[in-house]
Amino acid sequence: MSFLLFVVANSFSQSTQLDSGLFKLSGEVRARNTGKPIAGVNVSTDAGAYTTTNAFGTFVINARIGEELIFSGADIVTARHRITSKEEVILEVVDYDEDRSGRGMSSQEEYQRYLDSAQYYKKKDIEKSLDFIAKSIASPTISPTKSQLNTSLTLLGEVYLYHQQYDLAVANLQDALKAKKTIKSALLLSEALVLATDYKAALAELKKLEKIKRIVPYQHIAYLELQADAHKGLGDTRKALEFYEESLRVAEQNQVSPKVTDLTSKIADAYAAKDRKIEAEGYYNNSLKLSKQQAPQRAIQENEKVADFYNKSNRFTDEIQLRKESLNQLNALPKKRVAKEKNAAASDSITRQRINYKIANAYIAQDKLEEAIPYLQKSIVEADSEDDLIVQKDATRKLSEVYEYKGDFSKAYQTYQSYVTLVDTLYIRKEQELSRLSRLNRDIVNKQNRISSLEQERELAQSKYNLALTEQQLFQTRTNWQKWLIYSLVAGLALLGLIAFLYYRSNEKQKLANNLLALKSLRTQMNPHFIFNALNSVNNYIAKSDERSANRYLSDFSKLMRTVLENSEEDFIPFAKELELLQLYVKLEHARFPDKFDYDIVIGEEVVINQFEIPPMLIQPYVENAVWHGLRYKKEKGFLRIEIQQPSQHELEVTILDNGIGRKQSAMLKTQHQKKQKSKGMGNIKKRVAILNDMYNNKVDVTVANLYDDETGTKVILRLKKD
Question: How far apart are CA 714 and CA 702, in angstroms?
């Protein structure tokens, strides 16, 4: 067994300071007796950072002072070192057996080890899982076969499926099928397409499996179930039921009990969606009986699904009885088995606090307010203990409303104050979560790009190897060697040219894919301040018992949000739609600040609106800036004017004018916290404009200037060119 000796270098530091005390710690692992570097050593910290040593035995890892550095590997004893400075760390391995390390394991064993590691980290750490898959594809000692390449890319698709990265799952599963066609990869691709709501493409993939005869029962069940899911997604309930029932028949014949329960429940869902309540209830009753024969968690899940069905049917007594049964079953389970996983994707997870909240709502629907109060209080306490801010917020708001209905205005006010505090806390946490998810998405995209690059390099290396082998065989040919040599050179140049062309085209496609991914991320973001402020406006109307204004405002707000969601998938939309969205938004802001500004939207007579298209939500952030940072702080009533003109046949000009306090005074009014924060809305717009101009040859141009010489007011001019 090797003995480990740590040496910390004091002469030279390669650390780089990052944020929050984090810095890049560099180091080296080498054999003490020979000084030779040791590659492939796993290096991690107790905080979760991870890397491996490269061919030169060096590594760089993100760390903090006080954390523990852990070295592990097949050929060394695991060692630990407490980080006390930012100096370079050198690990020397005493009596390192280089011969043993050189023998190592076979390429098949090494490949399987990487695959097993990727599978192990699949649900725990997506970044580590991706790293191991990348090694299985492009390790120097592994030359994967088509079958192994299919297995690696299929596992990559499964990882992305679990973490709800459906676009990436589809792309990698398609690559897996290109390497080798397998039933497993085809079914997973169809599942990914269904989850991505691309139902027609899913049916097209499933159609390719129609002629396959050698398919195991479980795959046959999955094939029929996916057919049903796709038809249901397309709104064809009749065909969906046919496939569900056929899949159920196969599951019953082969005694696949879990699928029998799942499919019975899905058939009930399909009937319920078509408002055929009698048939739905019959299947739900069967699914309840079947679920009780399985794990307790499955029975609870089915109870809650049927309780939701009772709720939609206004059968509140049955709903309450079923949810109370779920609570009893949850309480009988060990707490660790009920706890929600970190990476759980369920948006409506089954927890005690949520069930108590739903029971309270059922009582409220029956005007049984006294019975509802204890369940709301339990929900709040349990949500607080589980750090479930969403349920805690909703239950607190509902409890405040119940107290108000009962006439206990003191408790209603106190509870409402708690609700407001929870909303603020939840907003801060959501911002932090969005930031964390943004960083994770960037890391995932970078790792996916690395995997794609590694695959390209592997293909290029294989091509070069094949070319060299061909040249050697030609060289060994004794007859007509000159003729064959010329042919081989021509073929080689053509092949290299083709590879260069394919590599260039692949890079262009990757650049386009990155741009599209960035656009998709940016255009789905809307300023959360506006959403929360709009909801608070509705709340104010309700508090003033102004039901008509609340309904009118909420109707306009819902229409605006629906329009935003409908347009979010497009790069460009008709200008008429953008104008409709803009009018709705200004109307809502004016309803919130009627004493702060008036507005006018002027469309020139020469403008032919139907001839132009515009990126969605491009104008709104500038209007929002005018209201929130200019007009809102103006002492007297201001004015917002939006002018739309067509200077030429191929150009549209949108001018946004406000006589607010101006950019300079607005910047002076910002708090220290605000000064540290960059405007997310304007930052997103600048990124979108840059990407769109790159993709569509400078189609959008934006200029911002002061309206008056005293630096008050703001003038924004947006020019849009027609193709």
Answer: 13
